[in-house]
Structure formats: structure tokens, C-alpha cells
């Protein structure tokens, strides 16, 4: 009876081990798409958008929390860039990404938490920094492989909540 129970308990463990061995490895394209998303994430954490326009297609579209922001270049120059100048820090946590590659297109869904440290208001009498802003966010992106073989974001939509 004891050997039967041991054998019975071993079946699910063996099944999981077999599934892990047969799970497909990430393709080179999936790895490249993840790298593009990571580079963008790192730029935001550095509070510097320098060079990030190469991660986006020239005719990209950015949507943020219910607003159509236009191309990435417009978004970076008129929204994201000025906003980052008001931050003392920006950190992501609990980041997860799902990527599906389909020919020259890739579809990504990112979930994460983030914390924004704000600089003190230079006009305020008290120079203490405001409390950090903590949010949960989600982003969906469509990427396309360009003629040079580089993945670029064509469309990005993100939103956040407390």
C-alpha cells in the first residue's frame, strides 16, 4: 500500500517535469521584443528618454490613461520628457510580460507596479518632497519588425490605478 501511494504521488511530479522539458524556449524574436520593452523601461527608470525614439516606429501611436498622445516623438517631447523632469525617481516592481510573435508583428502585455518620487516644489515654502506616488499599471504594445530586422513599437497603450 505504501509503495502504491509513493507511486501515485510521483506521477504529478513526473508530469510537471516532462512539461517543463517540453515547454518551448523563447524564440530569438520574442527575446528581441522583450529587450525593446526592457530598454524603454530602463530609460524611464533613468528619467531620460534620450535615444528611446529608435525603439518606436516613426508613425507610432501612444495612448495613456484615456488620452491619445500622438506619435512617440510627440509624447516624449510634450508629455513624458517634461513629466520625468519633475520626478526624483521612478521604479518598477513586480514586472511581468507576455509576448506573442506572429510573423513581422508582436503583441505584448505588461503588468507592473511603479513608484514615483517627486521633487520638492521650488515655489513651496516647505522644501520637503511630496509623498511618493504608487500605482499598478498595465500596458499593451504592438511591435513590428522593420526592414532592418529591428523590432519597434508601433502602438503603445498604458493605464494605471491606485
Your description of this structure?
There is one protein chain. The protein is an alpha+beta fold and 162 residues long. The chain has one domain (26-161): Nuclear Transport Factor 2, Chain: A (Roll). The protein is built from 3 helices and 6 strands, in the order ααββαββββ. A hairpin with a 5-residue loop joins strand 5 (133-145) and strand 6 (151-161). The termini are far apart.
Determine the number of helices (DSSP H or I, runs of at least 4 residues). 3
Q: What number of domains?
A: 1
Q: Please give the largest β-sheet.
A: 6 strands, mixed
Widest sheet: strand ordering: 2-1-6-5-4-3
Name of the CATH first level: Alpha Beta
- CATH topology tier name: Nuclear Transport Factor 2, Chain: A
Based on Cα principal axes, name the global outline.
Answer: elongated
Compute the CA-based radius of gyration.
Answer: 21 Å
Into which percentage range does the β-strand content fall? 35-45%
Helix-and-strand structural type:
alpha+beta
> Overall pLDDT, averaged?
88
Under the CATH scheme, which architecture would be assigned?
Answer: Roll
**Which regions are unreliable across 5 or more consecutive residues at pLDDT < 50?**
1-20
Distance between the ends: 54 Å
The helix/strand order is HHEEHEEEE
Q: How helical, in percent, are the residues?
A: 25-40%
Q: What's the total count of β strands?
A: 6
